[in-house]
Specification:
alpha/beta, Rossmann fold
């Protein structure tokens, strides 16, 4: 028997407005209205994917989402210095956020990336309107002006834990410019000094490591919550190809992604390890010529180029493991790891804590010493020599995905964060603070 017709958007909005005028949100009766803010960067990145994906998840869950985004600084024709100055205080963006809050009446403002052009001033606009704001930490920009804690081909934490970030200016870490680096640093210092950080109800980090990095940089742990990203559920695990076993790499062919370490490690393994394993590489990037050269010289290496989402899923599902040799922290667990686990394929990953902690905790793969071809070769050699263990890891991989990285777990955690900050706002209103 069909149930009653669902309320129209207008009816929900009317009920929402009546409750809002009373100063409270009835958490049992109402869905959440979310204003998403984001500053795009040149080239499609993980933050943009997460922004769109979480909007889709929220909408599918019955919540209402509106977005306000700014284009990349390069697309607006701004120099690095002008973009850095915008990062200090963007008056126009702040006013636009205020206007959109008044028109849309969100319960929560969720800022995905305020840097560089939107600026942290948008958090103050939300605070003035009495709307709690949260932000997802898609990079390390709050602690490192280059956003990645990586400099001169090595991990760098020179600015973590310092208030002035002068090392970042000295090293010209933002667009290789002293002026732009100084402007961005000034923005971080200013907003810490005037209490803008205190107006952010929650920083949402993607890993526990990223949370602790913010704590080391001076933020209170109680203001930070961990919520991993998620990827769509393929519905079932894949099956490894038994007659022609292979391992896979999917991603950009860049130094920081460890592609050279992978190729060198593969050569070492081929010389000393068990025969019969192949390496399939899907992607493109600056080191494409190197990948093509190695593939031409070694019949056990196959270069696939860019692949569609369906092709990537099939590639990962049929692999004995997926190799994730990143040599920098990454903002969170790499999406390639999440996609691999979603099809039940374990991983071989570098031992950087930010990207391997959950893999080790759930025993869904093994680690190797970051940047070490010999260590990677040793890890890969076990894929065929210890098939029983890798089969057991395959059985655990999809379970790890469902618990940690599935759409349902993502949505429930995200809405739970909104609920907490809204409850805190209610208590503050009730207490007259």
């Amino acid at each position: 028997m069909a149930g009653p017709d669902p309320p129209t958007d207008g009816a929900i909005a009317t009920q929402h407005n009546l409750v809002r005028r009373a100063g409270f949100i009835d958490r049992e009766a109402l869905l959440v209205r979310v204003l998403q803010l984001h500053n795009h960067h040149l080239g499609k990145g993980g933050a943009m994917e997460v922004l769109a994906y979480e909007a889709e998840l929220l909408g599918a869950g019955g919540h209402t989402v509106e977005q306000y985004t700014l284009p990349a600084a390069e697309e607006m024709g701004l120099s690095a210095v002008r973009a850095g100055l915008k990062a200090v205080w963007n008056i126009e963006a702040s006013r636009e956020v205020s206007r959109r809050i008044e028109a849309f009446e969100p319960d929560v403002v969720h800022v995905h990336t305020p840097f560089p052009l939107m600026s942290p001033a948008v958090f103050r606009a939300a605070a003035r309107a009495g709307v709690p704001a949260v932000t997802t930490v898609h990079s390390f920009r709050w602690s490192c002006i280059s956003a990645n804690c990586f400099r001169d081909n090595a991990i760098c934490e020179d600015c973590v834990g310092t208030r002035l970030k002068l090392a970042g200016v000295r090293h010209r870490c933002y667009h290789d410019s002293v002026g732009a680096s100084a402007a961005l640093t000034a923005g971080l210092v200013l907003h810490r000094q005037i209490g803008t950080m205190d107006k952010i109800a929650r920083f949402i980090t993607l890993t526990e490591f990223a949370k602790q990095l913010l704590v080391r940089d001076g933020l209170p742990a109680a203001q930070i919550v961990v919520k991993p990203n998620s990827v769509p559920d393929p519905g079932s695990a894949g099956q490894p190809v038994e007659d022609a076993p292979y391992v896979a790499f999917v991603g950009r062919f860049l130094d920081v992604k460890g592609i050279e370490t992978l190729l060198d490690g593969w050569k070492v393994m081929q010389q000393a390890g068990p025969p019969g394993l192949r390496l399939k590489l899907a992607g493109d990037g600056d080191l494409r010529a190197l990948v093509e050269e190695r593939a031409a010289a070694d019949p056990s290496i196959e270069y696939l180029g860019w692949c569609s989402e369906d092709e990537v899923g099939a590639l990962m599902g049929g692999a004995r493991c997926v190799v994730v040799p990143s040599e920098w922290y990454e903002a969170g667990v790499p999406m390639v790891t999440l996609r691999s686990l979603s099809v039940g394929t374990p991983v071989v990953t570098s031992d950087l804590e930010n990207i391997c902690a959950d893999v080790l905790a759930d025993d869904t793969g093994v680690t190797f010493q970051v940047g070490s071809a010999a260590s990677l070769a040793q890890a890969l050699a076990t894929v065929l020599s210890d098939e029983t263990t890798w089969h057991e890891r395959r059985q655990r991989a999809r379970g790890s995905y469902l618990r940690r990285y599935s759409p349902s777990s993502n949505l429930s955690r995200l809405v739970a964060i909104y609920d907490v900050v809204l409850d805190e706002r209610q208590r503050a209103l009730a207490g007259g603070t």
